[in-house]
């Protein structure tokens, strides 16, 4: 097997700060001691693989998957699409993407969500797909509603879709959220604000993509995802003392 | 001036939030049947080689309260230390498991086979361990850690050797509580804080 080289160390400046008092739950759930940094090994450089046979035909269609195609979900129809790349700019093919979201009224289908907006009997709120050979993926869904949450006196989450990606190794594992261009709640959200680097937060805001939208059917939003890459050099020395 | 260095930065993480189970463990969220086959329900299938073990524990916040909404993923090799997808791997070991803190007690259970040691790029092998990735509301970027075992020889492990404060090594070592049963608690913050990893 070819040794692809270790993962490029994570640049934590590009990520949210773990401790952010305006997001109150983070206060008691963020480590106070430094992380132990070390070059990746086999446990981080390998990861689960998934086959197309595990993915159902409607799994990436959240408008229809909850009712198995019987009736469409309520809401503004949208296509969420994009590419998964690594830090070296290479496509990440055949990787699992899972998403979950609230319905058009901002309510989640979860045993712990008691928001007064009603459940949509035709909407479950989860979907999954594998990227194709070029790293591209698509979901058909509805635009999720904004919703209030108990934090400061009156906090609302901007419209968002949660996204989970594996890449090709466990060390590339990433969960993030997609926001929507033009949503005024992004600026007011303490969870979005945990990302202190503004240009990094902008990378989670999907632009409206009229070229990919379908007339008389759905609007499109484009959301590319970049995962950690691997260092590739022919000069890999044995490090002493490890 | 210099040539532009075109490196794409990694997309930033965001918290998995309180409803992460809808996406990753739909049955736990109360939505059985969302998918024909859920992913990561068990890291092993019938006939997996090696010793089947059970690891129980909780994830505690800085006040000592066990999280009721944590979701954990584990990744590991088979009993011989070979990862799924590598030549010679045990076909009955998928390696991935998703498990959640119980909504009432906060306790989780992982049932798997004990993994074998894993060679490292630089000589000394890693002692048997299971990699964990912990997400929850209030955790802004997934936390990596590892489960080692108190009944294995951990003395030459290159990662444990890097922990300066030796008592902290214990935070990564599962304690035997019965025949093939272990306890492994995760402390996010404060006294006994788990060593979290950046690998
Ligand atoms: Fe959410």
From TrEMBL, chain A:
<dbReference type="GO" id="GO:0019619">
    <property type="term" value="P:3,4-dihydroxybenzoate catabolic process"/>
</dbReference>
<feature type="domain" description="Intradiol ring-cleavage dioxygenases">
    <location>
        <begin position="80"/>
        <end position="108"/>
    </location>
</feature>
<keyword id="KW-0560">Oxidoreductase</keyword>
<dbReference type="Pfam" id="PF12391">
    <property type="entry name" value="PCDO_beta_N"/>
</dbReference>
<dbReference type="Pfam" id="PF00775">
    <property type="entry name" value="Dioxygenase_C"/>
</dbReference>
<keyword id="KW-0223">Dioxygenase</keyword>
<dbReference type="InterPro" id="IPR000627">
    <property type="entry name" value="Intradiol_dOase_C"/>
</dbReference>
<dbReference type="GO" id="GO:0018578">
    <property type="term" value="F:protocatechuate 3,4-dioxygenase activity"/>
</dbReference>
<dbReference type="GO" id="GO:0008199">
    <property type="term" value="F:ferric iron binding"/>
</dbReference>
<protein>
    <submittedName>
        <fullName>Protocatechuate 3,4-dioxygenase</fullName>
    </submittedName>
</protein>
<feature type="region of interest" description="Disordered">
    <location>
        <begin position="33"/>
        <end position="52"/>
    </location>
</feature>
<dbReference type="InterPro" id="IPR012785">
    <property type="entry name" value="Protocat_dOase_b"/>
</dbReference>
<comment type="similarity">
    <text>Belongs to the intradiol ring-cleavage dioxygenase family.</text>
</comment>
<dbReference type="InterPro" id="IPR024756">
    <property type="entry name" value="PCDO_beta_N"/>
</dbReference>
<dbReference type="InterPro" id="IPR015889">
    <property type="entry name" value="Intradiol_dOase_core"/>
</dbReference>
<dbReference type="InterPro" id="IPR050770">
    <property type="entry name" value="Intradiol_RC_Dioxygenase"/>
</dbReference>
Automatic annotation (TrEMBL), chain B:
<protein>
    <submittedName>
        <fullName>Protocatechuate 3,4-dioxygenase</fullName>
    </submittedName>
</protein>
<dbReference type="InterPro" id="IPR050770">
    <property type="entry name" value="Intradiol_RC_Dioxygenase"/>
</dbReference>
<keyword id="KW-0560">Oxidoreductase</keyword>
<keyword id="KW-0223">Dioxygenase</keyword>
<feature type="domain" description="Intradiol ring-cleavage dioxygenases">
    <location>
        <begin position="34"/>
        <end position="190"/>
    </location>
</feature>
<dbReference type="GO" id="GO:0008199">
    <property type="term" value="F:ferric iron binding"/>
</dbReference>
<dbReference type="InterPro" id="IPR000627">
    <property type="entry name" value="Intradiol_dOase_C"/>
</dbReference>
<comment type="similarity">
    <text>Belongs to the intradiol ring-cleavage dioxygenase family.</text>
</comment>
<dbReference type="GO" id="GO:0018578">
    <property type="term" value="F:protocatechuate 3,4-dioxygenase activity"/>
</dbReference>
<dbReference type="Pfam" id="PF00775">
    <property type="entry name" value="Dioxygenase_C"/>
</dbReference>
<dbReference type="InterPro" id="IPR015889">
    <property type="entry name" value="Intradiol_dOase_core"/>
</dbReference>
<dbReference type="InterPro" id="IPR012786">
    <property type="entry name" value="Protocat_dOase_a"/>
</dbReference>
């Amino acid at each position: 097997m070819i040794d692809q080289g270790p993962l490029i160390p994570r640049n934590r400046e590009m990520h949210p700060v773990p401790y952010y008092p305006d997001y109150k739950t983070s206060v008691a759930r963020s480590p106070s001691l430094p992380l132990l940094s070390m070059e990746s090994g086999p446990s981080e450089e390998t990861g689960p693989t998934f086959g197309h046979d595990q993915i159902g035909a409607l799994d990436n269609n959240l408008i229809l998957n909850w009712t198995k195609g019987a009736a469409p979900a309520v809401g503004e129809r949208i296509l969420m699409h994009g590419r998964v790349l690594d830090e070296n700019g290479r496509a990440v093919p055949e990787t699992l993407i899972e998403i979950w979201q609230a319905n058009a009224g901002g309510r989640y289908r979860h045993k712990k969500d008691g928001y007064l907006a009603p459940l949509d009997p035709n909407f479950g709120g989860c979907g999954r797909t594998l990227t194709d050979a070029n790293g591209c993926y698509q979901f058909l869904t509805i635009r999720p509603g904004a919703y209030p949450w108990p934090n400061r006196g009156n906090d609302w989450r901007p419209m968002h879709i949660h996204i989970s990606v594996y890449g090709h190794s466990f060390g590339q594992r990433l969960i993030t959220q997609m926001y929507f261009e033009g949503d005024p709640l992004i600026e007011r959200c303490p969870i979005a604000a945990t990302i202190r680097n503004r240009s990094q937060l902008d990378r989670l805001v999907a632009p409206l993509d009229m070229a990919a939208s379908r007339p008389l059917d759905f609007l499109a939003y484009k959301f590319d995802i970049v995962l950690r890459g691997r260092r590739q050099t022919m000069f890999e020395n044995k490090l002493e003392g490890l | 001036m210099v040539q532009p260095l075109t490196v794409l930065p990694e997309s930033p993480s965001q918290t998995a939030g309180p409803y992460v189970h809808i996406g990753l463990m739909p049955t736990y969220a109360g939505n059985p049947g969302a998918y024909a086959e859920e992913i990561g329900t068990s890291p092993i299938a019938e006939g997996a080689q090696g010793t089947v073990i059970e690891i129980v524990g909780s994830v505690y916040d800085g006040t000592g309260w066990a999280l009721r909404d944590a979701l954990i993923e584990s990744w590991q090799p088979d009993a011989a230390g070979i990862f799924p997808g590598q030549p010679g791997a045990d076909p009955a070991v998928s390696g991935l498991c998703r498990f959640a803190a119980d909504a009432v007690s906060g306790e989780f259970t992982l049932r798997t086979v004990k993994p074998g040691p894993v060679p490292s790029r630089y000589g000394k092998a890693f002692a048997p361990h299971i990699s964990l990735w912990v997400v929850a509301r209030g955790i802004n970027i997934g936390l990596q850690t590892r489960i080692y075992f108190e009944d294995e020889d951990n003395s030459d492990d290159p990662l444990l050797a890097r922990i300066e404060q030796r008592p902290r090594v214990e935070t990564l070592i599962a304690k035997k509580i019965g025949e093939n049963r272990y306890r492994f608690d995760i402390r996010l913050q404060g006294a006994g804080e788990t060593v979290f990893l950046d690998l």
